[in-house]
Design a protein that fits this description.
By secondary structure, this protein is mainly beta. 6% of the residues lie in helices and 52% in strands. It has a single domain, classed as Beta Barrel (Maltoporin, Chain A). It has a 22-stranded antiparallel β-barrel. A hairpin with a 2-residue loop joins strand 9 and strand 10.
Length: 741
């Protein structure tokens, strides 16, 4: 009974079904009306020696034909993430970074977060954690709101059932910095990360890849694509990966299987539909061990805890997660003016997680605070979830019109999107046995609590209508104006409180405005304003209803430079970002909606090829002010945001010699940051990490050896609080052999 929709929700569901049916009918009509005999644009029939006509061969005059296609090299010139239309990045009045598949391959990374290590405005929470891709954008959490897959959100409403995306399955990873609710609805103020999936290609693609590395890493991956029929109307792609590895932490494995088939049907050159599916199975250990800061960040009388120390229980700890989704993307150009698009996805996630973790040192010698006995044995806590389960459904309907009147050109976009996500959560917390971290012995008895501490169901529903106009007059000026109206609801059941329910409906308008000047020499200064909002799932103890939505707004000025005819892109941005209505906790740990944060900073980014075969990527992030300006706890006002360094620098370069040899070198510097309580014990020192690559390409083979943290630097890379810290990843060595034919 709890999932029965309210009357308004039934009406909304009916409206969405009608929208789906209308769009599908339009697609069917236009597909039937268009000529199906002509070969797709950009292809030509090839005749063999016997006179037999072979499959079409695609001739690409450009390295990037669309906002979702493969980029040859490191520099992308087009993106749809910032506007939901295929737009040159230089005409978008907001900061965008694109990490291409070639760049991901050169870095030799196995995690999505590692692929963004050389991107401005992005901070990896570098404490080793196999469970999630922890990232912040402009000082704000990027993973909790959820990443985006092909422009649709994979929202995270749960504590630990968090959707993850596979780096090997990405054609490109796009980072849009700053609020973006006008197009996407519920988003974080720092920005969004959109992964563009590998899609079927006209060219035949066959790739087998094998990786081996330290910590007994073994990985095999495959990527196949091409036409199914001779006319090239039916295309397929199949991407798969299997990983079996240990980690630097004892008893903590890292295993996953990934499978992503897709199929494109093009009944004509103006209409296409792509069906996509993704399945991932994770089985990882708990490397996030909650080490006490007194023996990790600081030196204790007994020294520092080894980076390999496991604070859990080998026979108890586990993090097993299965997730899958299916969806499609439809596009049909009705004529030279009107194009319609529809995207939809349905997915499920299930996470079985349990862990024993550190809770600070036990005081074994209370008479002598500095006794080594007080810095040896940790108290441990117990956590277990009876598998958290969730599902999601998203749909986005768009109609685009290109109009021209004299020197004025308009790209009008109208859209109606809908998303629904729900999660069931049952969690247990309790006390675990103590552990000597310098001589651990596992297997002490303990018991799971009989009663859960959390037993809840949460459902978020959002429907939004948005309008956008990209106005270009002459060859020099581009204005982007947009507005969106959203209706978002949060419904929750607390099964521990006699199945008490809460229901909150929020309505919000968000806007965006930007202006770009396209100078003849390739320089493009811009200015923009954008807004965000995100409903809260925290319950107000006074009203027994969810708090009001968080809101964000940003002012940004910047400049881009793309010299004509070069593989180069340079950008600079100044921003002033504010986040309001943050739920914080007072001294009695009661939630209050009084939080406010203001972040101001500068980002510089360059991706260029100064000489042939030399690719360089450089990023600098300067955040002089990231302050808490309001909080339920007055002691926090004026403090710096956690995990937000004042300076962050990353430089990567690789060079390919004419004889097939290739080399690469990268340096990442992260300035000092404050921990969760911004106290002196939690100040995390700056650190510098070096990455390197050497390889050899010959015939159909590509060989590479990548080393992350070349010098094997030991550093604390995760925000600390009174009870826990985490080490960064030590030297990671991966050898890759790729065969393409």
């Amino acid at each position: 009974m709890r999932n029965l929709p309210l009357p308004r929700q039934r009406l909304l569901n009916a409206s969405l079904v009608a929208a789906f049916g209308t769009a599908t009918a339009l697609w069917g009509l236009c597909a039937a009306a268009q000529t199906a005999d002509a070969p797709p644009a950009g292809t030509a029939p090839v005749t063999g020696q016997s006179g037999q006509t072979l499959a079409p061969v695609t001739v690409n005059s450009e390295t990037e034909s669309s906002a979702t296609s493969r980029v040859n090299g490191y520099v992308a010139k087009r993106s749809a993430t910032g506007t939901k239309t295929d737009t040159p990045i230089i005409e978008t009045p907001q900061s965008i970074s694109v990490v291409t598949a070639d760049r991901i391959s050169s870095l030799g990374v196995t995690r999505l977060s590692d692929a963004l290590a050389y991107t401005a405005g992005v901070k990896m929470l570098d404490g080793l954690d196999s469970r999630f891709d922890w990232l912040t954008l402009r000082g704000f959490d990027a993973y909790s709101p959820g990443f985006y897959l092909d422009g649709m959100q994979v929202r995270n409403n749960s504590n630990y059932a968090v959707w993850r995306l596979e780096g090997y399955g990405a054609e490109r990873i796009e980072v849009l910095r700053g609020p973006s609710s006008v197009l996407y609805g519920q988003t974080g103020p720092g920005g969004m990360i959109n992964v563009v999936s590998k899609r079927p290609t006209e060219e035949r693609l066959r790739e087998i890849q094998v990786q081996v590395g330290n910590h007994s890493q073994k990985q095999i991956a495959a990527d196949f694509s091409g036409p199914i029929d001779a006319e090239g109307k039916l295309l397929y792609r199949l991407t798969a990966l299997g990983l079996d590895s240990n980690t630097q932490v004892n008893y903590a494995a890292d295993k996953r299987q990934y499978f992503a088939p897709s199929l494109t049907w093009r009944p004509s050159s103006d209409t296409s539909i792509t069906l996509m599916a993704h399945y991932t199975n994770y089985k990882v250990g708990n490397t996030y061990g909650f080490l006490p800061p007194q023996a990790s960040l600081l030196a204790s009388p007994n020294g520092r805890i080894a980076t390999s120390t496991f604070l859990g229980e080998p026979d108890f700890d586990r993090f097993n997660q299965k997730q899958w989704d299916v969806g499609y993307q439809l596009e049909s150009r009705l004529n030279d003016t009107i194009t319609i698009r529809q995207s939809a996805r349905y997915g499920k996630i299930k996470t079985d997680y349990r862990q024993i973790y550190g809770g600070g040192f036990a005081t074994l010698d209370p008479e002598n605070p500095f006794s080594p006995l007080n810095y040896r044995v940790v108290n441990r806590q117990l956590f277990a979830s009876s598998p958290e389960q969730g599902d999601l459904f998203t749909m986005d309907n768009q109609i685009q019109a290109k109009l021209k009147a004299g020197s004025w050109q308009h790209t009008l976009l109208a859209g109606l999107d809908h998303q629904r996500s729900s999660f069931d959560t049952v969690q247990y917390y309790g006390a675990g046995p103590q552990l000597d971290v310098f001589a651990p012995v596992y297997g002490a008895p303990f018991e799971l609590p009989a009663t859960p501490s959390t037993n809840s169901y949460v459902r978020l529903v959002q429907t939004g209508f948005y309008l956008q106009d990209q106005i270009k007059w002459g060859d020099r000026w581009v204005a982007t104006l947009g507005g969106r109206w959203d209706r978002a609801s949060v419904f929750s059941i607390n099964r521990l409180d006699d199945n008490s329910t809460s229901y909150q409906v929020d309505r919000k308008f968000t806007g965006r405005a930007g202006l770009v000047y396209l100078a003849p020499n390739g320089i493009a200064p811009y200015v923009s304003y954008s807004e965000s909002f995100s409903p809260s799932t925290f319950i107000n103890p006074d009203t027994k209803k969810p708090f009001q939505p968080e809101t964000g707004k940003q002012y940004e000025v910047g400049v881009r430079y793309q010299p004509t005819g070069t593989k180069s892109s340079y950008s600079a941005a100044l921003f002033d970002l504010r986040r309001k209505n943050i739920v914080t906790f007072d001294s009695d740990f009661v939630p209050r909606q009084t939080g406010e944060v203001r972040v101001r900073g500068l980002e510089l980014e360059a991706t260029f090829e100064p000489v042939k075969n030399l690719n360089l990527v450089a990023a600098y992030t300067y955040t002089p002010s990231a302050k808490i300006t309001a909080d339920a706890n007055p002691e926090k006002i004026g403090r710096q945001l956690i995990a937000t360094p004042r300076n962050q620098i990353a430089i990567w370069g690789d060079y390919r010699f004419g004889n097939g040899v290739k080399t690469g070198l990268g340096v990442r510097f992260v300035g000092s940051t404050w921990g969760a309580n911004s106290s002196s014990i939690a100040k995390i020192p700056s650190y510098t990490v070096v990455d390197a690559m050497v390889g050899y390409d010959f015939e159909n083979w590509s060989l590479a050896l990548n080393v992350r943290n070349l010098t094997d630097k030991i550093y604390v890379g995760r925000s600390c609080d009174q009870y826990s810290c985490g080490y960064g990843e030590r030297r990671k060595v991966v050898g890759t052999a790729t065969y393409r034919w």
